[in-house]
């Protein structure tokens, strides 16, 4: 697998609009003994919201993990244009509810990448944590245990952890899944604000409503890319009936 940064090195074949934050070619990835992603070629437009959409098991989380650098592709090219390393917000269910962590400690973990695990947080770190918590409306939950928060509150704490990394590239796995409509709308509006402020946001989602509100969609089925572009062009009745089989 080739990973490239800052447009250096050899260029894989194909056209590459300058406004892309990530481009990948012929990407294959999976788990030991199980190939999940097959020959994916596409890009993530900069300063927009992109939805990785598809039914459960289609490979959205795996692709997001590859883009976040937490899963290694087995082959292919992956190229990031200039910017900070991505901030990754994993699925809420993947984060233990029983961890003895307060909301604030959870957000502080977002600074570990820069600070190291055991180093004391600096004033700059604390400011980043404070402003992320305020932005997500969770400052008043700082001392509460993660496990005692509602699903929507916990999700906002996890997004605040991502935001505390102060990256211009935010990758979120199912950020609105399982939340009530109010919590969902709140998070959707917040992600739109982040894009307006200059962040490139990618969310994996099987929520079609969330996908329809994105600027761009990558539609996955069985680990293959079967559509890419604006939601109104990709999420057509025909495409959806191919992907979401009844029963
Ligand atoms: P989605 O996010 O679209 O639901 P995933 O990327 O989570 O899809 O999963 C794609 C496929 O990879 C599924 O068949 C799933 O069972 C499999 N898979 C996911 N995680 C693992 C893992 N850690 N080990 C083995 N197989 C996995």
UniProtKB/TrEMBL annotation:
InterPro entries: AAA+_ATPase, ABC_transporter-like_ATP-bd, ABC_transporter-like_CS, AztA-like, Metal_Ion_Import_ABC, P-loop_NTPase. Pfam families: ABC_tran. GO terms for molecular function: ATP binding. It comes from Streptomyces rubiginosohelvolus. SMART domains: AAA. It comes from the Bacteria. Keywords: ATP-binding, Nucleotide-binding, Transport. Residues 22-247 form the ABC transporter domain. This is Zinc ABC transporter ATP-binding protein AztA. Belongs to the ABC transporter superfamily.
């Amino acid at each position: 697998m080739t990973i490239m940064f800052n447009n250096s090195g050899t260029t894989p074949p194909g056209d590459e609009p300058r406004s892309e934050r990530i481009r990948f070619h012929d990407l294959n990835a999976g788990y030991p003994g199980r190939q999940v992603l097959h020959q994916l070629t596409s890009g993530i437009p900069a300063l927009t919201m992109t939805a990785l959409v598809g039914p459960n098991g289609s490979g959205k989380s795996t692709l997001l993990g590859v883009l976040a650098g937490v899963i290694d592709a087995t082959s292919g090219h992956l190229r990031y244009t200039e910017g900070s390393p991505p901030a990754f917000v994993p699925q809420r269910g993947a984060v233990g509810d029983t961890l003895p962590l307060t909301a604030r400690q959870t957000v502080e973990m977002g600074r570990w990448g820069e600070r190291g695990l055991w180093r004391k947080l600096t004033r700059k770190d604390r400011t980043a944590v404070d402003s992320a918590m305020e932005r997500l409306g969770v400052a008043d939950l700082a001392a509460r245990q993660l496990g005692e928060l509602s699903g929507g509150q916990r999700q906002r704490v996890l997004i605040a952890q991502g935001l505390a990394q102060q990256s211009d590239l935010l990758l979120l796995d199912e950020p609105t899944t399982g939340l009530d409509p109010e919590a969902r709308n709140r998070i959707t509006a917040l992600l739109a604000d982040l894009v307006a402020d200059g962040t490139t946001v990618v969310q994996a989602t099987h929520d079609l409503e969330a996908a329809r509100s994105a600027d761009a969609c990558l539609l996955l089925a069985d680990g293959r890319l079967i559509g890419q572009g604006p939601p109104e062009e990709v999420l057509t009745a025909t495409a959806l009936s191919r992907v979401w089989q009844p029963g």
